[in-house]
Specification:
The protein is an alpha+beta fold. It is about 20% helix and about 25% strand. It contains 2 helices and 6 strands, in the order βββαβαββ. Strand 4, helix 2 and strand 5 form a beta-alpha-beta unit.
Amino acid sequence: MTKEIITAKNAPKAIGPYSAGVRTGNLIYTAGQLGIDPLTGEFVSDEVIEQTRQALKNLKAILEAGGSALENVVKTTVFLRDMNDFGAMNAVYAEFFSENFPARSAVQVARLPKDAAVEIEAVAVISEQ
């Protein structure tokens, strides 16, 4: 099985020695995405709502660059700096995943890269064409 590195023009570049996405077989694994604007390299806001929306836009761009889409996501993991933000994150998440929901874990962590409010990673299948 081969491993293909995925890069996306519409998603931020990796901020360390990792790939934004990796395609192997019919699966794509994404790195955790922060609420960073790919054009400026800065957070879109300090608030979890806007960071969640941008993180999901970044995931979407990576998945599409790898030949998949949000509707093909089978699992997400959401990392929150504060579990009290779960409701706000969940409301935005529901804008992107409205049916046939992927499996999901959501956890509070001690700290996220760049002191982000939220980080989201995904595993998606690639539809046979």
